[in-house]
Amino acid sequence: MIKTMSFGVMHISVAFLVVWAMTGDWRIGGATALVEPCVNTVAYHFHEKVWKRLRNRKTGPGGPDSQPLAA
Predict the structure, then answer these.
(1) Which residue of 31, 32, 40, 50 has the lowest C-beta tally within 10 Å?
(2) pLDDT tens, position by position, 12-55
């Protein structure tokens, strides 16, 4: 969990620093650093849905991806 949190802090810091360096405006850098991870999270959700649909199309209903694992 600590590694995940440190990656989140690093991600936000990099976003802030890159945009700040490109624009010279810390407010734009800060706004981007806060908004971009939120947009990325929503985009990731839809990305996963598309990949799941493609995987299901490849294997078909009842394929290996839809079988529960034995305990």
Answers:
(1) 50
(2) 999 999 999 999 999 999 999 999 999 999 999 999 999 999 99
